[in-house]
Amino acid sequence: MLTPEDIKNLTEYQKEIFVTKEDFKRLEGKFDDLLASVDNYAKKANDYYQEMVMMNQKLNRHEKWILQIADKLNIKLEY
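^ that's the sequence the OP posted. Answer follows.
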């Protein structure tokens, strides 16, 4: 049979193991903050990727123009 001390110890142990509603609310807030951070990072990464794509297209266009100018001026470009 359980003594009052055993019951007290079990109750204290359960408080440590089982999560309360307050714990869930606190975790939910932290999870929401983490999710917002991940979303912000994903948007920044996507924006950076799109910028790099556009810069690559611009660089290719400039390289084409330079080669056309060099050809018209009879300049041999080495690279």
